[in-house]
Amino acid sequence: KLDDGTGYGSVEDILDLWQEEGLENSQAILQALDFNLEGKINLIELTMTLENELLMKNEVYQAALVSFRSEIRHLLERADQTAETDQGIGPEDCPPLNMSIEAEMAIEQMREQHQQEVEQLTLELESQAAHEEHMKDVKSACEKDKLLKEHFEEKISKAEEQILLLNLQHAALQSEIVKLREEQHKAECEHKREQINREGLLNEQKGQLEEQVAALQLQLTE
């Protein structure tokens, strides 16, 4: 018995009953119907929610449910009217019994139809729950891919910044090399010029010494 006397039933009892009846993903079904998994659930509200789901899913069931309810209401009214008549009805007067059987048949037919629709709704809710679980997995995978993409984009951005810095450093080094080569060329030219000047000065001094030596030799021979 789900009802604790207040019109409410515990979530645990409802889930246990559904699982005993072979319903899988019971928690997912309650969540899909927007019921809280903690505390207690209003059983009338749960029944109405399930019926509304069935009515929205199946127009044939909706028509059958309305017809059965109308027929049961009519049979119950006739049964009440018969109960108010003479209590000494003979065996030949059997309409109340026949009406009771008709009502039971109508209720049983409606119950079977309701059970089929509940099973169909359960399958749809399980499928919806599985789809939502799959979508959660897909969303989680997409978020991981997004984070991984952002991570690599950040690494690529840092690498590009390092490449730009290296290019700037390379350009600065190239400029420094050109400058050093120009200074080297100037130094070599200056060195050659000084060397030529020194050689000219040495040759001039050598010529003067040779003239002096020749003059001394001439004086000695005289």
TrEMBL record:
GO cellular component: centriole; ciliary transition fiber; mitotic spindle pole; pericentriolar material
GO biological process terms on file: centrosome localization; centrosome-templated microtubule nucleation; microtubule anchoring at centrosome
Alphabetical keyword list: Coiled coil, Cytoplasm, Cytoskeleton, Phosphoprotein
Coiled-coil ranges (or none): 104-197
Localization per Swiss-Prot or TrEMBL: Cytoplasm, Cytoskeleton, Microtubule organizing center, Centrosome
Domain of life: Eukaryota
PANTHER family in the cross-refs: NINEIN (PTHR18905:SF11)
Designated name of the protein: Ninein
